[in-house]
Amino acid sequence: MRDVLDILGVAVSGLTAKLTRTFLIMLGPVIGVSAIVAAVGLTESAKGDLQQTLAALGTNLITVEATGSFGSQNPTFPEDVVDRVMAVTTVESASAALNLSGITTTPYDAAKGYYEAFPIPVMAVDTAFPAVMGAKLSSGRWLNEFDNRSGGRSVVIGTGLANEIDYLPGSLRTINVGGVDYGIVGVIERVILDPNLDNGLFISFESADQDFDTGTEATKLYVRAIEGTTEETEAAMSTAINLGDSTEVTTSVPTDALESAAAADSTLQIIVASMGLLALVVGGVGIANVMSISVIQRSSEIGIRRALGHGRSLIAWQFLLESVAVGLFGGLLGAGVGIGIVVVASRVAGWVHVLTPELDLFGLHLPAFWFGIPTLCAIGVAAAVFTAVIAGLYPSIKAARLEPLETLRLG
C-alpha cells in the first residue's frame, strides 16, 4: 500500500512540477474528446430539431405538378382538379396554385431595374393554401372568398419579401404587380416546406385571370394525405387527376428532402467523430514524445530512486500513471468542453440540445437509454485514457530500463 501511495505522490509531483507542459500534452485528449462529444451532440440536436419540425408539419404533404398536356408548353390541370383529388379516400385536404411567369413586380419605382433582373415569384392560390401548407400569417389576413369571387386586388407577401421592402405590419401599402397596384393585406410566415415562397407574393385566381388573362386552371397542387397513407396517396394522384385524359403529372414529398438532410447529418456525425479520434491519436503521439523527453530531463530523479532501491516496475508505473492522469483529466475536460459547445451552439441555432441520441456510429447501434450523457462522456474519456496508456508504454519502459550510472550520463 505504501508503494502505491509513493507512486501516486511522485506521479502527481511530476505532473504539477511543470503545469504548462502538462496542460499542453492534455490538449490532444481535450480536443479529441470534445470533438467526439460535440459531433454527436450537435448532429443529434439538429436531427431532433428536424424531427420536431417534421412532427409539426407532418410528413403527409404531397406536391403535384402538371408536366404535359398534348405537347403544351404551359400544361395546366383541369378546372375541377381539386374535386378530383378530394375524391381519393386517403386525401385530407388539397390546395391549387398557379405560377405566373413574365410578370414584373415593383415594390417601388426606384428599384424597377433590379426587380426586372431578379423577378419576384408571383403565385395565384386558393383560400385553402395556408392550412394545407401548415403556414401561418405573421400579420394581416389571408385571401378570402370575397377576394376570389370579386377579383379584388389584394395580395399577401412572404416574410422574406416583407423584410426586403421594409413593410411595416398593418400599414397601408401597395405593390405594383405587372403594372397593376395591389394592396398588401397580409404577410405569411416562413414556409419551411417550400422556402422559395418566402420571397414571393400571392393573389387570387380571379385577380390573376382578370389582370393577366391567365385563366383559372392550376399548374400545381398541394395535397395533404391522411397520416400513414402518403405513399398510397402519391401513387393515386395520376389516376385521380387524369380520369382518362392526357394530363401528365409529377409528384414529390417535400419532407423527403428534410429526411435526407437528417441522413446527411448522420454522415457528418461519423466524419467529425472520426476527426476527433484522429485528434486523440495525434494527442497520443504528443504524449509519447513529451513523456520520452521528460524521462531524459528527469534522469537524475530516476537514478536517485533506483539507487535507493526502487525497482524497475515502480519506475515504469510512475510514468504510466502520469500518462493515464493526462488522458483522464484531458478526457474529462474535453467532455465538459464538448457538452458546452453543444448547449451554446444549440441555443444560438434555436435547437433543443440533445445528448441522449440513438447512435448509429461505425455500424454500432446504441439506443437512447444506453447512450445518454454519462455514457457519451464515459466513452470519450475511456478513449482518451486508452490512448494515453498506449502512448505512455514506451516512455515508461524506457524509464524502467535506465541504470543508475546511465542516468549520470544523461543528466
What is the fold's blueprint, element by element?
Elements: H1 2-17, H2 19-57, E1 61-68, H3 81-86, E2 91-100, E3 105-106, H4 112-117, E4 122-125, H5 129-133, E5 137-140, H6 145-150, E6 154-158, H7 159-164, E7 174-177, E8 180-188, E9 201-204, H8 205-212, E10 220-225, H9 230-242, E11 248-252, H10 255-297, H11 299-307, H12 312-349, E12 359-361, E13 364-366, H13 373-400, H14 404-410
Parallel strand pairs: 4-9, 6-8
Antiparallel strand pairs: 1-10, 1-11, 2-4, 2-10, 3-7, 5-8, 6-9, 7-8, 12-13
Helix pairs in contact: 1-12, 2-10, 2-12, 2-13, 10-13, 11-14, 12-13
Briefly, what is this?
The chain is of the alpha+beta class.
Shape: elongated
**What count of helical segments does DSSP give?**
14
Major sheet size, sense and barrel closure? 11 strands, mixed
Fraction of residues in helices? 55-70%
Average pLDDT reading: 77
What is the domain total for the residues? Answer: 2
Taking the alpha carbons of the first and last residues, their distance comes to: 31 Å
Low-pLDDT residue spans? 357-371
Query: Structural class, from helix and strand content?
Result: alpha+beta
How much of the sequence lies in strands comes to 15-25%
Give, in order, the helices and strands: HHEHEEHEHEHEHEEEHEHEHHHEEHH
Taking all Cα atoms into account, the compactness measure Rg is: 33 Å
According to DSSP, the number of beta strands is 13
